[in-house]
Amino acid sequence: xxxxxxxxxxxxxxxxxxxxxxxxxxxxxxxxxxxxxxxxxxxxxxxxxxxxxxxxxxxxxxxxxxxxxxxxxxxxxxxxxxxxxxxxxxxxxxxxxxxxxxxxxxxxxxxx
Amino acid sequence: xxxxxxxxxxxxxxxxxxxxxxxxxxxxxxxxxxxxxxxxxxxxxxxxxxxxxxxxxxxxxxxxxxxxxxxxxxxxxxxxxxxxxxxxxxxxxxxxxxxxxxxxxxxxxxxx
Lengths: 112, 112
Known about the structure:
heterodimer, A: 112 residues, mainly beta, 5-stranded antiparallel β-sheet, 5-stranded mixed β-sheet, 0% helix, 53% strand, B: 112 residues, 7-stranded mixed β-sheet, 4-stranded antiparallel β-sheet, globular
């Protein structure tokens, strides 16, 4: 059973454009919704996260939008830069199980 | 510098030859875990540990063992590696009660 569905698998955006990555989940036990960023040869690192009692969180050029009723959340990268080129994972967290469940990843390429 | 250190970074081995991948963290984190990353599948949890001498299976534990004799170390043991265990492995740690995981640099394992 695939608990977390992430799309698209890959994304190519021009510099200055908006990148949007989506994540849909099934498990209602998830209570924290992070996005992790992974550069080649490195481990994933927390980028931004949201709690389910808010619908949007913004940190600089990065925004999470959260729709609890639809069980979906998305990452928006405004003014995308070549340095944003990386693989992005949604990884909803269950506090009761103390477990991150990773999506399949989105490889983002920002063209200069 | 706060970090999670894995060794080795790269390993090529033959089927059936026991191996150990080490993981050490210097942040005094209680919680540690192992993941494998495969294309199109994201990261899947192998084993986790809530504290010293407390370990439990994740989503894909078959063929792996772990131990947690000290708080800082969490080695991953493959007693009889098989080609389907060829993968990129990550160790992660987090503070009890925290939702953020800190990942090592990864170990790329090839079993021939």
